[in-house]
Amino acid sequence: MKKRVFSFLLAVCTALSLTMTSCAAQEGPEEDANPAPVSAVSQELPFTDIPADAWYADEVQYCYENGIFAGTSDTAFSPDTTLSRSMLATIFYRMAGSPSLEDENLGYPFSDVPGDSWYADGVYWARMEGVVGGYGNNAFGPDDPVTREQAVTILWRYAGSPTASSGTFSDSADLADWAVSAAGWAQAMGLLTGWTDSSLQPQTPLTRAEAAVLLARYLESGEATADGSSSILVAYFSATGTTRPLAEYAADLLNADLYEIVPEDPYTNEDLDYTNPDSRSQVEGDDPDARPAIAGSVENMAGYEVILLGYPIWNGQAPKIISTFLESYDLSGKTIVPFCTSHSSGIGSSDDNLHSLAPDANWQEGTRFAGGTSRAEMEQWIEGLGLPRAQESAAPVFNFETRTVLLNSGYEMPIMGLGTYSLSDEECYNSVTALLEAGGRLIDTAYMYHNEAAVGRAVRDSGVPREEVFVITKLYPSRFSDAEAAIDEAMEKLDIGYIDLMLLHHPGDGDVEAYHAMEQAVADGKIRSIGLSNWYIEELEEFLPQVNITPALVQNEIHPYYQEQEVVPYIQSLGIVTQGWYPFGGRGHTAELLGDPVISVIAEAHGVTSAQVILRWNLQRGVVVIPGSSNPEHIRENLDLFGFELTDEEMAQIAALERGEKHDWY
User: Fold this and answer.
1) pLDDT tens for residues 367-379?
2) What is the largest CA-CA distance in the chain?
3) CA 413, CA 556: separation in Å to the nearest integer?
4) Is 377 exposed, middle or buried (0-12, 13-18, 19+ CB in 10 A)?
5) Catalytic amino acids?
6) Taking the CB of residue 166, how many other CB atoms lie within 10 A of it?
């Protein structure tokens, strides 16, 4: 997920002002595009409840000076007041530029987050981006206070879930599994120094003072503008919504950052009445000195090389708020590409008349688009500009500390588990029981395996909390024609409350419609994540444009003799997790693969089995493993993959075993 920190200051202030009084953005000097270091703050705080020697005083002052948020009144900051989950989700949504969710299939899975609530877009965007998840049972808890472990995890996910070791807290045992890496990252970054001592107290509600410390230190760390940020900014003003979708198209096509120019005093319908010479828009247009104030500012403008500037045409010219925007920054040497929206007027002189407001910028010729312009038309225009497209790594990252991966649906999934193909009911029950007793938590089943009921019974009988177990099942093509009924049947057979992940077993007639039924089941709270099995590059390229929810996972045949060296990176580049079936080559081929001389030598060098080498090779490639077995000893062995690591040379030796030898027809 791309970090969009340029609107951080406005975002936090606006979100907090939804429930706090007097949260006015404090504008910093225009010539300083970056926040000052915490150690360099100097402006006197107006808050009487912030002692000068408080451990958080410098960070609160930093946040105040840089406009992150002000107080709960003119003289109070309320450092001990807590933040709610909905407020924090909304902060990060606005950090991302408040992207439109109009074309997204949100599903509204949380019964306590109605679609018309002020925080709905923030919550559902954050869930869609994998920043925030729910509690289960269709609940989000919007008014619940954010706990410390939740806050550091949300920030960690927003930062791209960087690899981190577990922390050294005295109460590490109290941390939820999903928060271990985040807490270790925050500790290593120095974000917690001074307020956690040796313990984190992970379930303690986060206060405003602690939030100021987290945000200030994160911004100062340099992580907020690390690699992954774009050098292209799409800035736009859209009073009636006509310009917004074009700006979003442009940002998405260029993988650019998106910033909405928001007036401090929003325009009403009366303000926009062009037939009334006394309306606000007409008066501003006639006044060459009019400069409507903008709420907030672009953070780190200095880091952008290209700016696409979008606006509507008002009386043949750009709205005066565009003049405000251009005069607010030093744009020397930057390339500016204007584009306007109009139902009738061309861009005309509105383009040229802006040049004097940024005389040292490199202006490209502007373009006019009609309302309702398609994404394809925008793409054609952008291709002609010859602008560089920022690169973003969307590949899911395995966390070897927690032994999980964060799916694009926002849920954590174990990276190794058990496949139940060909296991009878009794074998399946015993195997799942052995897996859960050994600490494994990932189980793969399917309608065609005829053992869903046995899986569910083993999970229910295990005593392991339901939320700790991750169950995958699949719809077979013979069920695509009545997928809704098939989903309900799987729910009934498993009888575990919800399905963690459902896949289409392989392509077939009606697969798109069946996937849409799974999307609806996500909205209904029956399924948490959805995906595909036995889909390859061509199939994905044809299938993905027809669905609304990006698959969380694709499960394909993968083993050293059939490595999918092109398919796996392609799937991962889409932000989709790859999972491999037949890791040992499948029935009739297992003995040959486990006895392969290259693999055997590597296994001997590490004092492990050939099976463990193959599974570890998969994990280091970013491929989730689900080996099948009915042998409790083998099941335990297949989970014991973290006491050794393959070298680059060993990984290359196994890569050289590729034969393109597929062992099943899927």
Assistant:
1) 999 888 888 888 8
2) 86
3) 17
4) middle
5) 449
6) 16
